[in-house]
Design brief:
about 800 residues, elongated, Maltoporin, Chain A, mainly beta, Immunoglobulin-like, 22-stranded antiparallel β-barrel, TonB-dep_rcpt-like, Ferric Hydroxamate Uptake Protein, Chain A, domain 1
């Protein structure tokens, strides 16, 4: 029970705070510092307790991120006790504290007798609940060994990652992803494409922010995922090296090194990765019109993708003084992808006899270069949280795609058809400037204010050349070739106030954001295409107020209730707004909609947390009302391919309203030293109301997803972990999606005196992670099945030097976001 005494101390001190056992109304400020004996590193969240001569705990407190404490105590004689989970307790006896005093620095050594219990906790995902977020310390998750950050997110409660990489929070894909509290090209928006370049071991923790406070961007109606990357705190030189090989063919090498002294901290993470991702897709379109000669078209698509990536992150943190530091960092990545997509199309006549067979082969080469420069400054005016932060960030990304599409009929006669050659050059620049000010007021209150400016420009140069006759010269298609320039500029001001009244905490904030969305197309014959959606020159501005309110009531030291409200915005971006269609299939295309307006949502969240000795329960009920919500629809364009096949496009549109209601529950359970379990269940219902082009797209969608994980300690220090995930069936007004089951299996063993680890895992054990759907309209019926990547097997080896295995939960570390 010793590890829970610190929690009890704080709760008791709240009740007795201000009572003077010595009959003296005078209060004095007691300060000091607690460090780890073996490394000299500060011990954050260590407990300090003051006990009077009658043996009664009068008050207490905890240390900050630098291991410092500042506690007001009624003047008198005390025994001062210092504790931290997994460390031996120290005490200072008979301390006569009658005036402001700085106590000697206290060094706590690890308690070797309690390490086994502590290791169990550190190797399991843990949850910490704050006023505006849930923090998941990932722990030693075996199934992410050799995986990337995108894969690791799929193991976080409330989060799902689709088979094509789309990230959703509580079933909603309108989620904002931050890296260390800031927008980053590494993260993108609602996709793991760039995150696949980073190893999962780079994650320190993931903050799931379903009720964001005013300090965060208002972007993302579902909420925010804030990925905090590791930054070593141990003094001296340390690091690790990890290598992986797998089937389908994959390999990677990643290393990190850290040098920390009293004046500076230099850190670097560098990785190289090669990965093959074979996938498959199936489409069946049944056209209902009697005028179509071949009403049934079946496509079978084989995809072979090869990804190569190099990334490095180098930074230096310089400590100007004990309270002021500057950090400069640079991130660079270079990727080279080679993809081949073979689309075999069979057309059947009204008698279901094969009429035409056709092969369409697309070769695509993509090169991505991305770099980011960042400068961060922080100064702490005192030890009570009074601080100022400033950040500058610049990013530049270049993506070049070259596609060659060859097509030929194979039945009834072999005929070579004209080819297409497509080049796409996309350049993006993003500037960020941010300043945050935090001012404590009294003992329990805090005021925050800040500014953030985000300025992004994306230029997409798209050129389509095609042959008029097979084997002929390539001629530019001026009706589709274009240069699309998209600007998104966001200026934001915020302020918020928080206070704690006994067991009740409140955080109230207001954020003002001004958004400018500007699009301009440079094309010679845009209007000749005959599609109004191509008239896309626009300049729109939106100014919005985004209030936030977060409340917490502590029923006791292990039980609490939270209530949150916030208003959010979802801005259209990327391929959702670019009106020039994909060309992988003649008859099934995706086309962006430049007429999309931002969607606005108001969300409510009621949460409950309960901790027992071996069990933690988290749960919440949530409701969201969204206007101008985005929805993907499928429609017959009225156009046909050169072979007379109707062209069906998928188009994102604004619908009038979207109501979401649901509940989720999560359990972390450690019934024995050799067994750790966790699981979560999320049930939700979407109710959409709206129409487009005279068609009613209103629908009600009820679905759920569940995940479970079991980790078992086997003999000979072997760890075994199994993860299972199931997403239930879902639907919208047109499409029904089948459920998806995925199971991952992993084993690991520490060797070389625990300085190295060998790991083995199987991702998608039953090769069942496939998306199957059925779309029904008045003019066609479409059935499809899609598999992004087949089952994979991975073997990893990790070697650590001067790095200890994590032995204690790190509930709070260096954080680029202020905490209340």
């Amino acid at each position: 029970m010793k590890k829970y005494i610190s929690i009890l101390i704080i709760c008791m001190s709240m009740v007795s705070f201000g009572q003077n056992p010595n009959g003296d109304s005078k209060e004095v400020m007691i300060t000091g510092n607690i460090i780890e004996a073996s490394t000299g590193a500060p011990l954050e969240y260590a407990t300090v307790a003051f006990t009077d001569m009658q043996g009664k705990i009068v008050t207490g407190g905890i240390t900050d991120l630098e291991g410092k404490y500042a506690i007001k105590v009624p003047a008198g004689m005390y025994k001062v006790t210092f504790e931290f989970i997994g460390f031996s307790t120290k005490s200072l006896e008979n301390q006569n504290l009658t005036e402001d005093t700085t106590l000697p620095t206290v060094s706590l050594a690890e308690d070797l007798e309690s390490l086994d219990e502590i290791v169990i906790r550190a190797e399991t995902t843990e949850v910490v609940v704050r006023l505006d977020k849930k923090i998941y310390n990932i722990g030693k998750d075996l199934t992410t060994s050799g995986a990337n950050v995108g894969d690791a997110l799929s193991n976080v409660p409330s989060v799902t990652v689709d088979i094509d990489g789309s990230i959703a929070l509580r079933g909603n894909e309108n989620v904002r992803i931050l890296i260390n509290g800031k927008p980053s090209a590494i993260a993108g928006f609602g996709s793991t494409d760039a995150l696949r370049a980073l190893p999962a071991d780079a994650i320190d923790r993931v903050e799931v922010i379903t009720s964001p406070s005013a300090r965060y961007d208002a972007e993302g109606t579902a909420g925010i995922l804030n990925i905090i990357l590791r930054k070593e705190k141990t003094l001296g030189l340390n690091g690790s090296l990890q290598t992986n090989v797998g089937v389908p063919a994959s390999s990677s090498l990643n290393g990190n090194i850290n040098l920390r002294t009293d004046k500076f901290n230099i850190f670097n993470n560098t990785g190289w990765r090669y990965r093959e991702s074979p996938g498959k897709a199936y489409f069946s379109n049944q056209y209902l019109s009697s005028n179509i000669i071949n009403p049934l078209v079946i496509e079978n698509r084989d995809m072979d993708r090869i990804n190569r990536n190099f990334n490095t992150n180098l930074g230096i943190e310089y400590f100007i003084s004990d309270k002021t530091s500057v950090t400069a960092s640079a991130f660079f990545s270079h990727g080279n992808d080679d993809d081949e997509t073979i689309n075999k199309t069979d057309e059947f006549d009204t008698n279901n006899d094969l009429a035409i067979s056709r092969d369409r082969i697309e070769y695509e080469s993509e090169t991505d270069t991305n770099y980011q420069l960042a400068l961060n400054y922080i100064t702490k005016f005192d030890d009570n949280g009074h601080e100022l932060k400033a950040d500058l960030q610049f990013e530049k990304e270049n993506e070049e795609e070259i596609s060659l599409i060859n097509e030929n009929n194979t039945y009834p006669n072999e005929v070579v058809l004209p080819s297409e050659f497509i080049t796409t050059d996309e350049n993006q620049k993003e500037y960020l400037a941010q300043i945050d000010y935090v001012r404590p007021i009294g003992e329990n209150a805090q005021f925050e204010a800040g500014f953030r400016g985000n300025f992004t420009e994306t230029v997409t140069d798209y050129e389509l050349t095609e042959q008029m006759t097979a084997g002929g010269s390539f001629i530019r298609n001026d009706s589709l070739s274009n240069m699309f320039t998209y600007n998104e500029n966001v200026n934001a001001l915020y302020s918020q106030y928080g206070n704690k009244y006994g067991k009740f905490s409140v955080l109230l904030g207001l954020r003002l954001e001004h958004t400018q969305l500007k699009g301009e197309v440079d094309a010679e014959n845009v209007e000749a295409n005959g599609d109004d959606a191509l008239n896309i020159n626009f300049d729109k501005s939106y100014t919005g107020l985004f209030p936030t309110l977060n409340l917490t009531y502590e029923l006791n030291d292990r039980e609490s209730i939270t209530l949150g409200y916030n208003r959010r915005i979802n801005r259209p971006r990327g391929r959702w707004i670019n009106p020039f269609p994909s060309r992988s299939s003649e008859a099934n295309i995706f086309q962006g909609n430049p007429n999309l307006d931002p969607a606005f949502a108001s969300a409510f969240d009621l949460g409950y947390l309960k901790r027992w000795s071996k069990l933690t329960l988290t749960s919440s009920i949530y409701y969201q009302h969204e206007t101008d919500a985005f929805e993907r629809i499928q429609e017959d364009t009225g156009q046909e391919t050169s072979n007379g096949i109707p062209i069906i496009r998928t188009l994102p549109i604004n619908l009038s309203t979207n109501e979401r209601i649901g509940f989720e529950v999560g359990i972390l359970y450690n019934p024995a030293k050799w067994l750790r379990l966790n699981g979560s269940f999320n049930f939700f219902q979407f109710n959409t109301d709206g129409e487009f082009n005279g068609i009613d797209y209103g629908a009600k969608n009820t679905s759920y997803f569940a995940r479970g994980s079991a980790k078992v300690s086997l003999p000979y220090n072997i760890e075994w972990q199994t993860n299972a995930f199931y997403r239930g069936p879902s639907n919208n007004s047109q499409t029904e999606n089948d459920g998806i089951l995925s199971v991952d299996l992993a084993l690991s063993k520490d060797i070389l005196n625990d300085n190295a680890t060998v790991g083995f895992n199987v991702n998608d054990l039953f090769n069942s992670r496939k998306r199957s759907s059925l779309t029904t309209t008045d003019t066609f019926i479409s059935e499809s099945e899609y598999q992004w990547r087949q089952r994979s097997v991975n073997l990893s080896f990790t070697y650590r030097f001067n790095q200890k295995k994590e032995r204690r939960p790190q509930e709070s570390r260096d954080d680029d976001e202020g905490e209340f």
